[in-house]
Amino acid sequence: MAYEYDLVILGGGTAGYVAAIKASQLGMKTAVVEKEKLGGTCLHKGCIPTKSMLKSAEVANTMKHAGIFGIGSVEPEIDMGKVQERKQEVVDQMYNGVRHLMKKHKVDVFNGHGRILGPSIFSPMAGTVAVEHPEYEEAESEILINQHVLVATGSHPRPLPFLPFDGSLVLSSDDMMTLDHIPSRMVIIGGGVIGLEFASILTDLGTHVTVVEAGNQIIPHEDKDFAGALKKALEAEGVTFKVGTSLDEDRISKGEDAITLQFDEGEETFDKALVAIGRAPNTEDLGLGNTKIQLDGGYISTNRYYQTKDENIYAVGDVIGNLQLAHVATKEAVIAVEHMAEKRPYTLDYTTVPRCIYTHPEVASIGRTEKELKEAGMEYSVHKVPFAAVGKAVIAHGGKGFGKMLVEPETKDMLGLSLIGPGATELINEAALAKFLDASALEVGSAIHAHPSIGEVMMELGLDAEGIGIHV
Description:
472 residues; alpha/beta; 24 strands
């Protein structure tokens, strides 16, 4: 059966369903093709469930360190089944909300695998979408004729070639979402955001965690001062790091219920291994060969409005290889849809995108790092404020945290900002607003901030950039 739409979206994840809502608001008849569940990785296997587990881990950490606040410390009893149950309740609530939004905005949802067709009897240009139902071999494909296509199929965990996922001993981040018990000893291969968030979760829940990072710095794309501070904080909680350590198949031995890794200083055995070395785009079997779409390193190439070489076909999110963050994907999706509707949208400046790491302590940043500024030959000044200068942060036992602002000496524009400490992933939104409005450091510092609040660190950073900080 054939249907006609203004826009067909491949992928019902965060970018896909947001694009559908925006298109509906602009009067476009829209369909979403999703082979699993609306909400995608972010809702079911990423952002939302991991943060639910992080909250449970945070509670466990607070119980273990309650003595700091004058309350008797206790060793929490971890019920992983109930942790997972609460996580699923959160996910289900949000999932039902997304389904309601699709109905509210009259978006048609097709459950199946979407494949782009080339020029055919349905259209003289590539873009018609065939929806297949692999689980029903005799079911006919549904044909979605359209004016525009948006590819928002996301990504999947990238395996190590010599250590494939098996779902039991060698786990992906997806597998962690169904973990039914707390391993005694676990190795996490990859010291990026995903690996460190799980290191934080597992350590707070009682696992002895070892993180193996091939590079010379964890979170390699972030400021080295914050990478060092986070490493030190996690080590204080019991995480072991092996940085600058590369693995190969000769260093790994798998048994029936354990995995042994050979390090320079000797071998160690773990109950499970989590491979968290990044994510790969979902561009296979989409019919891209039927189009003019070009790939670069497996990612779909687009212009600044997210058009591909076929101007009626757009792509956003993890499949195009920019920052693999849900809030980036949704912003790209809105820009793409507005461009389809000839609304002349603002393009996305990726230096205005906040980046968050939901470990304990939290890390958040925006803009450029010192390394990036040096490589670009740009002048800048550095301004640091310890969280110890802010009463509310000390109360929250976050006095070891700090903020760092990088400022252009002449204009006093904020070039970059990083934070580590309590509330960092919320505070960064103030910096994002400042970047969007092109506020100077002094303007950030001059805005009245509530006292006591952890947000006062932003005020002090802005004032310090002018040499007039009050508490530093």
